[in-house]
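Allow me, if you will, to draw on your knowledge of protein folds for a short while. Thank you for your consideration; the sequence and its C-alpha coordinates are set out here:
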Amino acid sequence: MTTLEVIVFLAVVLVVIIPIAVAYLVGRSSAAGSSRDADVPTGSVTGSVPAAKNNTQLLGRLRDAFNHIDHAVVVADQDGNEVFVNSAAEKLRESRDGRVLVDSAANELLREALSGKVQSKEVDLFGPPARTFSISARPLSGSAGNGALVIVEDITMRRVTETVRRDFVANISHELKSPIGAMGLLADMIRQDNDPEVVTRLSNRMVHEAERASRTIDDLLELASIEFAGEADFAEVDAGSIVAEAVDRISSSADQAQVDIVTVDDFDGNIVCDRLQIISAIYNLIDNAIKYSPPGSMVEVSLRPSKYAGMIEFSVTDKGVGIPRRDLDRIFERFYRVDRARSRGTGGTGLGLAIVRHVANNHAGEVAVESIEGVGTTFTLTIATAPADSRITS
Protein backbone atom coordinates (compact mmCIF):
# COMPACT_ATOMS: atom_id res chain seq x y z
CA MET A 1 0.00 0.00 0.00
CA THR A 2 1.16 3.55 -0.70
CA THR A 3 1.43 6.16 2.05
CA LEU A 4 -1.75 7.80 0.80
CA GLU A 5 -3.65 4.49 0.85
CA VAL A 6 -2.49 3.79 4.40
CA ILE A 7 -3.61 7.24 5.58
CA VAL A 8 -7.02 6.83 3.94
CA PHE A 9 -7.47 3.39 5.49
CA LEU A 10 -6.53 4.65 8.95
CA ALA A 11 -8.91 7.59 8.56
CA VAL A 12 -11.80 5.30 7.67
CA VAL A 13 -11.04 3.14 10.71
CA LEU A 14 -10.62 6.21 12.91
CA VAL A 15 -13.73 8.12 11.91
CA VAL A 16 -16.17 5.53 10.60
CA ILE A 17 -15.57 1.96 11.72
CA ILE A 18 -14.36 2.29 15.32
CA PRO A 19 -16.95 4.87 16.47
CA ILE A 20 -19.71 2.70 15.01
CA ALA A 21 -18.27 -0.40 16.65
CA VAL A 22 -17.90 1.33 20.00
CA ALA A 23 -21.45 2.69 19.89
CA TYR A 24 -22.81 -0.70 18.89
CA LEU A 25 -20.97 -2.59 21.63
CA VAL A 26 -21.84 -0.07 24.32
CA GLY A 27 -25.48 -0.11 23.22
CA ARG A 28 -25.58 -3.88 23.18
CA SER A 29 -23.97 -3.97 26.60
CA SER A 30 -26.61 -1.61 28.00
CA ALA A 31 -29.47 -3.60 26.50
CA ALA A 32 -28.10 -6.87 27.77
CA GLY A 33 -27.58 -5.43 31.21
CA SER A 34 -31.20 -4.16 31.41
CA SER A 35 -32.68 -7.53 30.45
CA ARG A 36 -30.57 -9.42 33.00
CA ASP A 37 -30.62 -7.03 35.94
CA ALA A 38 -32.39 -9.59 38.11
CA ASP A 39 -29.99 -12.40 37.24
CA VAL A 40 -26.60 -10.69 37.09
CA PRO A 41 -24.78 -10.30 40.41
CA THR A 42 -23.69 -6.81 41.42
CA GLY A 43 -20.27 -5.88 40.08
CA SER A 44 -20.30 -8.32 37.15
CA VAL A 45 -19.18 -7.05 33.74
CA THR A 46 -20.43 -8.35 30.43
CA GLY A 47 -18.00 -9.35 27.66
CA SER A 48 -19.09 -6.41 25.50
CA VAL A 49 -17.86 -3.69 27.85
CA PRO A 50 -14.19 -4.76 27.68
CA ALA A 51 -14.55 -4.99 23.91
CA ALA A 52 -15.83 -1.42 23.76
CA LYS A 53 -12.97 -0.31 26.00
CA ASN A 54 -10.45 -2.03 23.74
CA ASN A 55 -11.88 -0.26 20.70
CA THR A 56 -11.66 3.07 22.49
CA GLN A 57 -8.00 2.36 23.25
CA LEU A 58 -7.44 1.46 19.60
CA LEU A 59 -9.01 4.78 18.65
CA GLY A 60 -6.44 6.54 20.81
CA ARG A 61 -3.60 4.59 19.22
CA LEU A 62 -4.81 5.53 15.75
CA ARG A 63 -4.84 9.18 16.73
CA ASP A 64 -1.26 8.81 17.97
CA ALA A 65 -0.32 7.17 14.67
CA PHE A 66 -1.76 10.11 12.73
CA ASN A 67 0.21 12.53 14.89
CA HIS A 68 3.44 10.81 13.85
CA ILE A 69 2.71 11.20 10.12
CA ASP A 70 4.75 13.93 8.40
CA HIS A 71 1.84 14.92 6.13
CA ALA A 72 -0.78 17.32 7.43
CA VAL A 73 -4.08 15.43 7.81
CA VAL A 74 -7.55 16.89 8.40
CA VAL A 75 -10.58 14.60 8.78
CA ALA A 76 -14.13 15.97 8.59
CA ASP A 77 -17.54 14.42 9.20
CA GLN A 78 -20.35 14.36 6.65
CA ASP A 79 -21.33 17.94 7.59
CA GLY A 80 -17.81 19.27 6.99
CA ASN A 81 -16.98 19.71 10.66
CA GLU A 82 -13.39 18.88 11.56
CA VAL A 83 -13.30 15.80 13.78
CA PHE A 84 -9.54 15.30 13.72
CA VAL A 85 -6.50 17.44 12.90
CA ASN A 86 -3.08 15.85 13.30
CA SER A 87 0.03 17.51 14.74
CA ALA A 88 1.55 18.27 11.33
CA ALA A 89 -1.59 20.17 10.28
CA GLU A 90 -1.64 22.14 13.53
CA LYS A 91 2.02 23.06 13.07
CA LEU A 92 1.37 24.14 9.47
CA ARG A 93 -1.41 26.43 10.70
CA GLU A 94 1.02 28.24 12.99
CA SER A 95 2.37 30.24 10.02
CA ARG A 96 0.18 32.71 8.15
CA ASP A 97 0.81 31.11 4.75
CA GLY A 98 0.24 27.64 6.17
CA ARG A 99 -3.01 28.72 7.81
CA VAL A 100 -4.27 30.11 4.51
CA LEU A 101 -3.16 26.91 2.78
CA VAL A 102 -5.12 24.65 5.14
CA ASP A 103 -8.13 26.86 5.77
CA SER A 104 -8.63 28.03 2.18
CA ALA A 105 -7.20 25.71 -0.46
CA ALA A 106 -7.69 22.54 1.60
CA ASN A 107 -11.23 23.41 2.64
CA GLU A 108 -12.16 24.10 -0.98
CA LEU A 109 -11.16 20.57 -1.92
CA LEU A 110 -12.80 19.20 1.22
CA ARG A 111 -16.20 20.48 0.10
CA GLU A 112 -15.76 18.69 -3.22
CA ALA A 113 -14.75 15.49 -1.46
CA LEU A 114 -17.84 15.59 0.77
CA SER A 115 -19.93 15.36 -2.40
CA GLY A 116 -18.12 12.17 -3.39
CA LYS A 117 -15.37 13.56 -5.64
CA VAL A 118 -11.65 12.86 -5.39
CA GLN A 119 -9.73 16.11 -5.82
CA SER A 120 -6.07 17.17 -5.83
CA LYS A 121 -4.01 20.25 -6.65
CA GLU A 122 -0.57 21.79 -6.12
CA VAL A 123 -0.11 25.13 -4.41
CA ASP A 124 3.02 27.29 -4.48
CA LEU A 125 3.89 29.47 -1.50
CA PHE A 126 6.40 32.11 -2.52
CA GLY A 127 7.80 32.53 0.98
CA PRO A 128 10.56 33.12 1.68
CA PRO A 129 11.39 30.33 1.55
CA ALA A 130 9.41 29.27 -1.51
CA ARG A 131 7.62 25.95 -1.02
CA THR A 132 5.31 23.70 -3.02
CA PHE A 133 2.49 21.68 -1.46
CA SER A 134 0.33 18.89 -2.82
CA ILE A 135 -3.23 18.86 -1.48
CA SER A 136 -5.52 15.88 -1.99
CA ALA A 137 -9.03 15.29 -0.70
CA ARG A 138 -11.31 12.28 -0.97
CA PRO A 139 -14.45 10.85 0.62
CA LEU A 140 -13.67 8.36 3.36
CA SER A 141 -15.80 5.51 2.02
CA GLY A 142 -15.40 6.22 -1.70
CA SER A 143 -18.71 8.08 -1.89
CA ALA A 144 -20.54 10.91 -0.16
CA GLY A 145 -22.05 10.43 3.28
CA ASN A 146 -19.28 9.35 5.65
CA GLY A 147 -17.06 12.40 5.80
CA ALA A 148 -13.86 13.25 3.97
CA LEU A 149 -10.11 13.39 4.35
CA VAL A 150 -7.63 16.10 3.32
CA ILE A 151 -3.89 15.44 3.09
CA VAL A 152 -1.36 18.28 2.66
CA GLU A 153 2.16 17.20 1.68
CA ASP A 154 5.25 19.40 1.33
CA ILE A 155 6.72 18.34 -2.04
CA THR A 156 9.30 21.13 -2.34
CA MET A 157 12.33 18.84 -2.30
CA ARG A 158 10.66 16.42 -4.70
CA ARG A 159 10.14 19.23 -7.21
CA VAL A 160 13.72 20.45 -6.73
CA THR A 161 15.01 16.92 -7.32
CA GLU A 162 12.88 16.54 -10.44
CA THR A 163 14.17 19.86 -11.79
CA VAL A 164 17.80 18.93 -11.11
CA ARG A 165 17.33 15.49 -12.69
CA ARG A 166 15.61 16.96 -15.75
CA ASP A 167 18.31 19.60 -16.15
CA PHE A 168 21.02 16.98 -15.71
CA VAL A 169 19.65 14.78 -18.51
CA ALA A 170 19.21 17.78 -20.81
CA ASN A 171 22.66 19.14 -20.02
CA ILE A 172 24.58 15.90 -20.36
CA SER A 173 22.89 15.32 -23.71
CA HIS A 174 23.89 18.80 -24.83
CA GLU A 175 27.43 18.66 -23.45
CA LEU A 176 28.23 15.40 -25.23
CA LYS A 177 26.21 15.88 -28.42
CA SER A 178 27.58 19.36 -29.13
CA PRO A 179 31.28 18.45 -29.46
CA ILE A 180 30.51 15.14 -31.16
CA GLY A 181 28.26 16.90 -33.66
CA ALA A 182 30.89 19.60 -34.21
CA MET A 183 33.57 16.98 -34.85
CA GLY A 184 31.35 15.34 -37.45
CA LEU A 185 30.82 18.62 -39.28
CA LEU A 186 34.52 19.50 -39.11
CA ALA A 187 35.52 16.09 -40.44
CA ASP A 188 33.11 16.50 -43.34
CA MET A 189 34.56 19.96 -44.12
CA ILE A 190 38.12 18.58 -44.02
CA ARG A 191 37.14 15.82 -46.43
CA GLN A 192 35.84 18.39 -48.92
CA ASP A 193 38.73 20.88 -48.68
CA ASN A 194 42.28 20.35 -49.98
CA ASP A 195 43.75 23.63 -48.74
CA PRO A 196 46.44 22.67 -46.17
CA GLU A 197 45.88 25.85 -44.15
CA VAL A 198 42.14 25.25 -43.91
CA VAL A 199 42.66 21.58 -43.06
CA THR A 200 45.08 22.52 -40.27
CA ARG A 201 42.68 25.08 -38.81
CA LEU A 202 39.74 22.67 -38.93
CA SER A 203 41.86 19.87 -37.46
CA ASN A 204 42.80 22.09 -34.52
CA ARG A 205 39.12 22.78 -33.93
CA MET A 206 38.42 19.04 -34.00
CA VAL A 207 41.09 18.49 -31.36
CA HIS A 208 39.53 21.25 -29.24
CA GLU A 209 36.06 19.66 -29.47
CA ALA A 210 37.48 16.22 -28.65
CA GLU A 211 39.22 17.66 -25.58
CA ARG A 212 35.98 19.34 -24.54
CA ALA A 213 34.09 16.04 -24.69
CA SER A 214 36.93 14.30 -22.86
CA ARG A 215 36.87 16.87 -20.04
CA THR A 216 33.13 16.41 -19.61
CA ILE A 217 33.49 12.63 -19.44
CA ASP A 218 36.43 12.87 -17.03
CA ASP A 219 34.51 15.21 -14.71
CA LEU A 220 31.45 12.96 -14.85
CA LEU A 221 33.54 9.95 -13.91
CA GLU A 222 35.19 11.86 -11.07
CA LEU A 223 31.83 13.07 -9.77
CA ALA A 224 30.41 9.54 -9.95
CA SER A 225 33.47 8.18 -8.15
CA ILE A 226 33.14 10.72 -5.33
CA GLU A 227 29.36 10.39 -5.07
CA PHE A 228 28.86 6.64 -5.43
CA ALA A 229 32.17 4.93 -4.63
CA GLY A 230 31.17 4.24 -1.03
CA GLU A 231 33.48 5.03 1.88
CA ALA A 232 36.14 7.68 1.36
CA ASP A 233 39.78 6.64 1.72
CA PHE A 234 40.61 8.54 4.92
CA ALA A 235 44.19 8.97 6.08
CA GLU A 236 46.14 11.42 8.23
CA VAL A 237 47.88 13.98 6.01
CA ASP A 238 49.53 17.38 6.26
CA ALA A 239 46.93 20.00 5.38
CA GLY A 240 49.47 22.38 3.85
CA SER A 241 50.77 19.71 1.47
CA ILE A 242 47.26 19.27 0.06
CA VAL A 243 47.05 22.94 -0.88
CA ALA A 244 50.56 22.86 -2.33
CA GLU A 245 49.76 19.89 -4.56
CA ALA A 246 46.49 21.41 -5.80
CA VAL A 247 48.29 24.66 -6.65
CA ASP A 248 51.08 22.76 -8.40
CA ARG A 249 48.58 20.87 -10.56
CA ILE A 250 46.84 24.05 -11.70
CA SER A 251 49.94 26.23 -12.09
CA SER A 252 50.29 25.76 -15.85
CA SER A 253 46.68 26.88 -16.39
CA ALA A 254 47.31 29.91 -14.19
CA ASP A 255 50.43 30.83 -16.16
CA GLN A 256 48.54 30.52 -19.43
CA ALA A 257 45.75 32.77 -18.11
CA GLN A 258 48.31 35.23 -16.69
CA VAL A 259 46.86 34.86 -13.20
CA ASP A 260 49.06 34.72 -10.10
CA ILE A 261 48.26 32.25 -7.31
CA VAL A 262 49.16 33.30 -3.76
CA THR A 263 48.86 30.88 -0.83
CA VAL A 264 48.31 31.82 2.81
CA ASP A 265 48.84 28.96 5.27
CA ASP A 266 47.69 29.71 8.82
CA PHE A 267 47.20 26.09 9.85
CA ASP A 268 50.10 24.00 11.07
CA GLY A 269 49.12 20.39 11.50
CA ASN A 270 47.59 17.24 10.09
CA ILE A 271 44.00 16.40 9.27
CA VAL A 272 42.17 13.14 8.58
CA CYS A 273 40.65 13.18 5.11
CA ASP A 274 40.51 11.57 1.70
CA ARG A 275 43.59 13.29 0.32
CA LEU A 276 42.73 12.91 -3.37
CA GLN A 277 39.18 14.19 -2.86
CA ILE A 278 40.33 17.32 -1.02
CA ILE A 279 43.01 18.00 -3.65
CA SER A 280 40.32 17.63 -6.34
CA ALA A 281 38.00 20.05 -4.52
CA ILE A 282 40.68 22.72 -4.07
CA TYR A 283 41.87 22.24 -7.65
CA ASN A 284 38.33 22.79 -8.96
CA LEU A 285 37.88 25.92 -6.85
CA ILE A 286 41.17 27.39 -8.10
CA ASP A 287 40.38 26.36 -11.68
CA ASN A 288 37.00 28.10 -11.43
CA ALA A 289 38.64 31.25 -10.03
CA ILE A 290 41.22 31.37 -12.83
CA LYS A 291 38.60 31.00 -15.56
CA TYR A 292 36.64 34.01 -14.33
CA SER A 293 39.60 36.26 -13.45
CA PRO A 294 41.08 38.86 -15.80
CA PRO A 295 44.73 38.60 -16.93
CA GLY A 296 47.13 40.16 -14.46
CA SER A 297 44.90 39.52 -11.45
CA MET A 298 45.56 37.38 -8.38
CA VAL A 299 43.87 34.33 -6.85
CA GLU A 300 44.44 33.78 -3.14
CA VAL A 301 44.29 30.27 -1.66
CA SER A 302 44.18 30.27 2.13
CA LEU A 303 44.18 27.60 4.82
CA ARG A 304 43.15 28.39 8.39
CA PRO A 305 41.37 26.96 11.44
CA SER A 306 37.62 27.47 11.38
CA LYS A 307 35.81 29.44 14.06
CA TYR A 308 34.07 26.13 14.79
CA ALA A 309 36.03 23.69 16.93
CA GLY A 310 37.45 20.71 15.10
CA MET A 311 37.00 22.27 11.66
CA ILE A 312 39.38 23.68 9.04
CA GLU A 313 38.76 26.10 6.15
CA PHE A 314 40.18 26.15 2.64
CA SER A 315 39.30 29.43 0.90
CA VAL A 316 39.82 30.52 -2.70
CA THR A 317 39.35 34.23 -3.47
CA ASP A 318 39.45 35.89 -6.88
CA LYS A 319 39.07 39.43 -8.20
CA GLY A 320 36.97 38.35 -11.15
CA VAL A 321 33.55 39.10 -12.59
CA GLY A 322 31.58 37.89 -9.58
CA ILE A 323 28.33 35.93 -9.46
CA PRO A 324 24.83 37.47 -9.62
CA ARG A 325 22.86 36.99 -6.40
CA ARG A 326 20.09 35.15 -8.27
CA ASP A 327 22.53 32.40 -9.25
CA LEU A 328 24.17 31.77 -5.87
CA ASP A 329 21.65 29.11 -4.79
CA ARG A 330 22.17 27.01 -7.93
CA ILE A 331 25.86 27.17 -8.76
CA PHE A 332 26.59 23.83 -7.05
CA GLU A 333 24.14 21.97 -9.29
CA ARG A 334 25.58 19.75 -12.00
CA PHE A 335 26.08 21.57 -15.30
CA TYR A 336 24.69 24.84 -13.94
CA ARG A 337 26.49 27.83 -15.40
CA VAL A 338 26.06 31.51 -14.67
CA ASP A 339 27.25 32.43 -18.18
CA ARG A 340 27.10 29.52 -20.62
CA ALA A 341 28.83 31.36 -23.44
CA ARG A 342 31.76 32.37 -21.22
CA SER A 343 31.95 28.85 -19.75
CA ARG A 344 32.26 27.30 -23.19
CA GLY A 345 34.99 29.79 -24.05
CA THR A 346 36.95 28.92 -20.91
CA GLY A 347 36.45 25.18 -21.32
CA GLY A 348 34.26 24.72 -18.26
CA THR A 349 32.09 21.62 -17.96
CA GLY A 350 29.76 22.88 -15.23
CA LEU A 351 30.68 19.96 -12.95
CA GLY A 352 33.55 21.37 -10.89
CA LEU A 353 31.47 22.96 -8.13
CA ALA A 354 29.21 19.89 -7.93
CA ILE A 355 32.35 17.85 -7.26
CA VAL A 356 33.37 20.29 -4.49
CA ARG A 357 29.95 20.00 -2.85
CA HIS A 358 30.09 16.20 -2.75
CA VAL A 359 33.62 16.25 -1.34
CA ALA A 360 32.37 18.54 1.44
CA ASN A 361 29.50 16.16 2.19
CA ASN A 362 31.90 13.22 2.37
CA HIS A 363 33.96 15.06 4.98
CA ALA A 364 31.17 16.21 7.31
CA GLY A 365 31.58 19.73 5.98
CA GLU A 366 30.12 22.34 3.68
CA VAL A 367 31.07 24.72 0.89
CA ALA A 368 29.92 28.34 0.98
CA VAL A 369 30.22 31.23 -1.44
CA GLU A 370 30.31 35.02 -1.10
CA SER A 371 30.34 37.15 -4.22
CA ILE A 372 29.91 40.72 -5.41
CA GLU A 373 29.49 41.35 -9.13
CA GLY A 374 32.45 43.20 -10.58
CA VAL A 375 34.47 42.77 -7.37
CA GLY A 376 35.15 39.08 -6.91
CA THR A 377 34.19 35.81 -5.30
CA THR A 378 35.29 33.73 -2.32
CA PHE A 379 34.55 30.02 -2.02
CA THR A 380 35.17 28.43 1.39
CA LEU A 381 35.38 24.68 1.88
CA THR A 382 34.96 23.81 5.56
CA ILE A 383 35.62 20.23 6.69
CA ALA A 384 36.18 18.40 9.96
CA THR A 385 39.82 17.88 10.86
CA ALA A 386 38.86 14.31 11.73
CA PRO A 387 35.29 13.30 10.74
CA ALA A 388 33.64 11.21 13.44
CA ASP A 389 32.79 8.37 11.04
CA SER A 390 36.16 8.36 9.23
CA ARG A 391 38.21 5.19 9.08
CA ILE A 392 41.97 5.69 8.71
CA THR A 393 43.24 3.28 6.10
CA SER A 394 46.92 4.13 6.11
Summary: The longest strand covers residues 131-139. Residues 3-154 form a domain with the Beta-Lactamase fold (CATH 3.30.450.20). Residues 20-30, 35-47 have pLDDT under 50 and may be disordered. The first helix runs from residue 3 to 35.
